[in-house]
Design brief:
This protein has 748 residues and is α/β, with parallel strands linked by helices. The chain has four domains: 1-32; 35-335, TIM Barrel (Alpha-Beta Barrel), CATH 3.20.20; 364-560, Rossmann fold (3-Layer(aba) Sandwich), CATH 3.40.50; 630-746, Immunoglobulin-like, CATH 2.60.40. Bound molecules: alpha-D-glucopyranose (GLC).
Length: 748
């Protein structure tokens, strides 16, 4: 009897739910397929409401459909952490007190881990922070290829190689979107410099476009499933990338079947008809005609606002394009703001700080370690005396740099990190400024709170550092670039490949005063190192975010065995770089027009592809990174000597930790096509795996490669092609350290 009662009760509940659901309009019924919900919502919307979806209503939000209960879309920068709230229509701060965040390491550091698991951890963590802050779109990550060491925004991107960037961006996207927050992969495409970023018209051959500049974006769409993409500021083939027929309609939406929304960069929209016809879906940040930049941006004057309504009401246009844009934006809303299954996120949690530190620990690259000066260890009976020199040892790096600037809950400086780690081994730490660089500590109203002013002359500062260096057991110079204009900063490129602020003079002077000199280069770009042979220890330390000082100290004192590898080459001098040797950087001004034409003449020979093929030895090579232990990569073997277009080959190589402490090595697979009817780079990265090994341990690493890894893009046929003949698989732990090579044949 009792069971019968329960059954009746259960049926009653199910009936009530069913009735309630059926009383809901389809678009609000979470039980219905999203595509049905989109069509239902669209059918209920007025023309005004549809147009309202297509453009911003404030600096970082766009309208939903209030009448139907469809929520607004809130976007936020940036790739390394969640930007503090700004005023409705301003770049400046809203002055909230609940929007401090964790700053994760810059994406160059993430790329330098060569570890997709770190990307997944990164994406999940930053996605939790965005979700907690109720943001639906994270304006990142950036995957523009590192073409010139002068590009002010390289620190936000994932290096010079399309395969590495593609492998590393996919898990980041999945991690973020697992929180019900969309990524907005940027800046699509060919935004490889900041100089004249709004007015540079890029010309590049199709083969280079498809082999170098598109792969990371393609992976983001076809493997990562990113829900939005951001159009770039620059022009390509004389059309702005934010409304570019070839990039957006032909490639992104047709070839790659992208079902998400294309969002303009802020101020990247310039024409209503092009925006309608050439694939733009959501317009942000326009400085519309008749309005100057920064004034109240009359959102109804946006290109996809009143001008669009006028075209439809006049009968000049139908609503085909409009409905497609609305479908994409509604799909974005259903995936995010109206997604009933998304978690709640978290902000400034211990796990986020741990993630930031782990990624920093794994991304730091040990460039040079002559005489094994590193790690600094406690010698028996003595207390090492350490002198830290340099502005970058104390300067906050999370403020500045452009839209990725953050208001952090905390940032551990290199000096603080070194001090606390040194205490554990009984070492003493002194500090000398060494040089004065950028004393500003404010960006868009966020201040670092530091007063770095120092009226002493360069001579006095060097003299002080040298005097103190003479009495130290170790000198750690922490320098590099910073986040101010013409350094690693959005909106401007570097003016020189050299270190700024006379740092070379400081390093040279210190190298004479104390041979136990370690240089920690904090930067998002390669820099010239004329003193490289005089400095036994060199660390590439990136912008590491909230846990910067702890990660740097972890490596310096050996708590962590460094395993990072360079995601881009360090040319000896600027002219050793393809874009500067051949490429027309920064572009040539078109007469009587505010347009700079730039042809990427170096073509596919970007980064190590240029160094290898032109036989120009770099200062430090793509993929380079040392360890405190040693590894041996043995002889590679293949499971077959011949393959056809449709099958694959497995290449296996043993890697052994031949040292006495645990460590991780990145085994890199490069493919060479020595005989081909077209010019191909000497070799190209087509696989990598990071393996953690105990002392004496050997692991066999296998790579299975198919026709994709052997192909080049043939622009005449618009197809990927691999020509029959011999191929070589080259295995090593850097692009300039190949340990083993095996050949195989691709049959006709
Ligand atoms: C900026 C940047 C872009 C950023 C956007 C919003 O100009 O180019 O990366 O997400 O505007 O701040």
């Amino acid at each position: 009897m009792k069971n019968l009662g329960l059954i009746v009760f259960g049926i009653g509940i199910m009936w009530a739910n069913a009735m309630q659901a059926s009383s809901l309009p389809v678009y609000l019924d979470n039980g219905r397929p999203v595509e049905e919900r989109i069509e239902d919502a669209l059918s209920r919307m007025t023309l005004q409401e549809k147009i309202g979806l297509l453009h911003a209503q404030s600096k970082f939000s766009s309208r939903g459909v209030p009448r139907l209960g469809i929520p607004e879309l809130w976007t936020t920068d940036g790739p390394h952490g969640i930007r503090p709230e700004v005023l409705w229509d301003e770049w400046n701060q809203a002055g909230w007190s609940n929007d401090s965040c964790v700053a994760f390491p810059a994406l160059t550091c993430l790329a330098a881990t060569w570890n997709p698991a770190m990307s997944s951890l990164y994406g999940h963590s930053i996605g939790e922070e965005a979700r907690y802050r109720n943001k639906s779109v994270l304006l990142g990550p950036g995957v523009n290829i590192y073409r010139t060491p002068l590009n002010g925004r390289n620190f936000e991107y994932m290096g010079e190689d399309p395969y590495l960037a593609a492998r590393m961006v996919v898990p980041y996207i999945k991690g973020v979107q697992s929180n019900g927050v969309a990524t907005c992969v940027k800046h699509y495409a060919l935004n490889n410099q900041e100089y004249n970023r709004h007015t540079t018209n890029v010309t590049v051959d199709d083969r280079t476009l498809y082999e170098i500049y598109l792969p990371a974006f393609k992976a983001a769409v076809t493997e990562g499933g990113t829900w939005t993409i951001m159009g770039a500021y620059n022009l390509y083939n004389n059309e702005h990338a934010c409304h570019n027929q070839k990039l957006l309609n032909d490639i992104l939406k047709k070839e790659w079947q992208f079902d998400g929304a294309v969002i303009s960069d802020w101020g990247g929209t310039h024409d209503t008809m092009q925006a309608i016809k050439n694939g733009l879906d959501l317009e942000f940040g326009s400085w519309t005609n008749g309005l100057s930049e920064g004034s109240k941006n009359a959102y109804d004057s946006y290109y996809l606002a009143d001008p669009y309504i006028k075209l439809i009401n006049s009968g000049a246009l139908g609503t085909t394009e409009l409905d497609d844009k609305c479908r994409r934006i509604l799909r974005l809303i259903f995936r995010t703001a109206m997604n009933p299954n998304r978690p709640f996120g978290s902000l400034c949690s211990d796990s986020h700080y741990e993630a930031a530190r782990r990624i920093g620990d794994e991304g730091i690259v040990l460039l040079r370690n002559e005489g094994e000066i590193l790690p600094i260890k406690k010698a028996e009976g003595t207390a090492p005396r350490i002198l830290v020199v340099g502005e970058n040892a104390i300067k906050m790096m999370t403020v500045g740099g452009g839209s990725s600037s953050l208001k952090v809950q905390r940032e551990v400086s290199p000096l603080d990190g070194i001090r606390s780690a040194a205490k554990e081994i009984g070492a003493t730490v002194e500090y000398a400024r060494g040089y004065v660089g950028d004393v500003n500590g404010e960006y868009n109203g966020v201040t670092s709170g530091q007063n770095l002013k120092d009226s002493r002359s360069a001579k006095e500062l060097i003299a002080e550092a040298v005097n103190m260096a003479r009495d130290a057991d170790y000198v750690i110079f922490v320098g590099g670039l910073n986040k101010s204009n013409h350094q690693d900063c959005e909106g401007s490129d570097r003016k020189s490949y050299s270190l700024p602020y006379h740092q070379n003079d400081v390093i040279e002077a210190l190298s004479k005063a104390n041979r136990n000199l370690i240089v920690v280069n904090v930067s998002g770009n390669a820099v010239e190192m004329p003193w490289v042979k005089k400095v036994p220890g060199i660390i590439q330390a990136w912008y590491l975010g909230s846990e910067a000082g702890n990660s740097i100290a972890d490596v310096i004192f050996g708590k962590v065995n460094p395993s990072g590898k360079l995601p881009f080459s360090f040319p000896l001098s600027l002219n050793d770089n393809g874009a500067h040797s051949m490429g027309q950087y920064p572009g040539i001004k078109r007469n009587k027009e505010n347009v700079w034409d730039e042809e990427y003449r170096e073509g596919i020979l970007v980064g190590y592809r240029w160094h290898d093929t032109k036989r120009i030895k770099p200062l430090f090579a793509f993929g380079h990174g040392l360890s405190y232990t040693s590894f041996m990569i043995g002889d590679a073997s293949v499971d077959k000597k011949e393959i056809t277009q449709s099958d694959s080959i497995t290449i296996t190589v043993p890697v052994t930790n031949t040292g006495v402490i645990p460590g991780a090595e990145v085994v890199q697979l490069y493919i060479a096509d020595p005989v081909c009817s077209v010019t191909r780079p000497t070799k190209e990265l087509k696989g990598f795996e990071k393996v953690y090994l105990q002392p004496g341990e050997t692991r066999h690493v296998s790579f299975t490669v198919g026709i994709d890894a052997l192909s080049y893009f043939d622009s005449d046929s618009h197809q990927w092609k691999a020509e029959p003949g011999e191929f070589k698989a080259m295995l090593g732990n850097s692009s300039d350290k190949i340990a083993s090579t095996v050949s195989f044949v691709l049959k006709k």
